[in-house]
Structures are given as structure tokens and as C-alpha cells.
């Protein structure tokens, strides 16, 4: 009896040791692949949106950075050329720089001799075109920042539907591994959508701030040019 009792205790200890939960690590790749086909498709769409957002951000960032480069002595040279009647030299200088500010001033120089109101209107129209060029494709970032979380939430709804479907068809026996697939879809797509949305939102606002600085720079130089033309000779 004693040996039998000891053997029973030994078997119980081994069974308890074998039943101890094993800590499981889950990589990002496993987390995505565990979400099923629906989750993988939504993750793929969000990944494409992330690539598009990053491309637009860096492309616009470099373009805006190049547009903001203006020689500190540019306006002084323009004023000297205009005061001395060297209109062609002033236009040549604007063409050489080829920046939004220089193109605005060049547009104003090409209208010298006409009323000041006409020169101002020409500069304003050219300024609108320059701003449109600076803001090219930036609105897509705003769209992605709003659409990505919604796409992620769509994955959440799909995942919950799959989980509920499995519960309804389990016949009273719930298989946790099957149920987990729907929950993986729900959670991973939500996280992915939020990440893409946050990245696109930050990128959009940063580009807006940088664009506003260039617009202010254009306005300041245009006003300085118009004030120079308005000075009594």
C-alpha cells in the first residue's frame, strides 16, 4: 500500500508538472499570419498605405526644403537691378534661382510698367499656383490618416464576426485555437490601422507647417518687392 501510494503521488506530481502552462512567445509575423486570410488582406492594404504615405512625405519634404532655400542677398540684388533699370538682369537672376520666391518676383518684374494693382494681381495668381505645387499629394496623407484606422476597425469587425461564427457552430464545444484566429484578426488589424493613421497624421501636419513657412516667405518677399516699386523715384 505504501509503495502504491508513493507511486500515485509521483504520477500526480508528474501530471501537475506536465500541465503547467508553457510561456509562448509570439513574433509579429506569427501574429499577422495567425489572423487568417481576412486579417492578412487588411494588413497588406494597410502596409501599402504606409508605403504610399512614407513616399509622399519624403518626396514633399525634400521638395519643400528645396523651395525654402532663398539667398539672403536676393532681394537686395533685385532692388538694385530694378532701381538701375536693369530689368533683364533682374529677370535673369530670378530664372537662375528658380525657386517659388524667385518665380513670384520674376512674375512681378515682367509686369513692370503696368499699374501696381496689376502687378499685385499677377503675383497673387502666381502665388496660388506655387502653393498648389507645394501642396501636391499632401491631401492624400490626410486621407490615409483618416482611412487607415477605419480599415483597421473593419478588420476588427470581421475578426469578431469570425469569432462569433465559430462560437455559434461549436455545438457547445469551444475550440480556443479556432476562436483565437478571429480575435487575432480583430486585434492585429486595429493596431496596424492605428499605427498607419498616426504616422500619416504626423507626416501631414509636419508638411503643412513646412509649407506655411514657405508661403510666409513668399508673401514677405512679394510685399518687399511691391513696396520697393511703390517708393517715390
UniProtKB/TrEMBL annotation:
Q: Which family does it belong to?
A: Belongs to the exbB/tolQ family.
Q: Name one Pfam family in it.
A: MotA_ExbB
Q: Tell me what organism the protein belongs to.
A: Gaetbulibacter aestuarii
Instruction: Tell me where in this chain the MotA/TolQ/ExbB proton channel domain is found.
Output: 98-219
Entry keyword Transmembrane helix: yes
Q: Where in the cell is it found?
A: Cell membrane; Membrane
The keyword Cell cycle appears for this protein: no
- What InterPro entries would the database entry show? ExbB/TolQ_transport, MotA_ExbB_proton_chnl
Q: What is this protein called?
A: MotA/TolQ/ExbB proton channel family protein
User: What residue intervals traverse the membrane?
Assistant: 37-58, 138-164, 184-204
* Protein topology in the membrane: Multi-pass membrane protein
Q: Which UniProt keywords apply?
A: Cell membrane, Membrane, Protein transport, Transmembrane, Transmembrane helix, Transport
Amino acid at each position: 500500500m505504501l509503495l502504491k501510494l508513493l507511486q500515485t503521488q509521483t504520477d500526480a506530481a508528474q501530471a501537475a508538472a506536465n500541465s503547467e502552462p508553457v510561456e509562448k512567445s509570439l513574433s509579429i509575423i506569427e501574429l499577422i499570419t495567425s489572423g487568417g486570410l481576412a486579417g492578412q488582406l487588411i494588413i497588406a492594404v494597410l502596409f501599402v498605405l504606409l508605403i504610399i504615405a512614407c513616399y509622399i512625405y519624403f518626396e514633399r519634404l525634400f521638395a519643400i526644403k528645396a523651395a525654402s532655400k532663398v539667398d539672403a542677398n536676393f532681394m537686395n540684388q533685385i532692388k538694385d537691378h530694378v532701381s538701375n533699370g536693369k530689368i533683364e538682369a533682374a529677370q535673369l537672376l530670378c530664372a537662375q534661382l528658380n525657386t517659388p520666391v524667385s518665380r513670384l518676383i520674376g512674375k512681378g518684374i515682367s509686369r513692370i510698367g503696368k499699374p501696381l494693382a496689376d502687378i499685385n494681381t499677377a503675383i497673387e495668381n502666381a502665388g496660388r499656383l506655387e502653393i498648389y505645387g507645394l501642396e501636391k499629394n499632401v491631401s492624400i496623407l490626410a486621407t490615409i490618416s483618416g482611412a487607415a484606422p477605419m480599415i483597421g476597425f473593419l478588420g476588427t469587425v470581421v475578426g469578431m464576426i469570425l469569432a462569433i461564427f465559430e462560437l455559434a457552430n461549436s455545438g457547445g464545444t469551444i475550440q480556443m485555437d479556432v476562436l483565437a484566429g478571429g480575435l487575432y484578426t480583430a486585434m492585429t488589424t486595429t493596431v496596424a490601422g492605428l499605427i498607419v493613421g498616426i504616422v500619416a497624421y504626423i507626416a501631414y501636419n509636419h508638411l503643412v507647417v513646412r509649407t506655411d513657412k514657405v508661403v510666409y516667405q513668399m508673401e514677405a518677399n512679394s510685399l518687399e518687392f511691391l513696396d520697393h516699386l511703390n517708393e517715390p523715384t
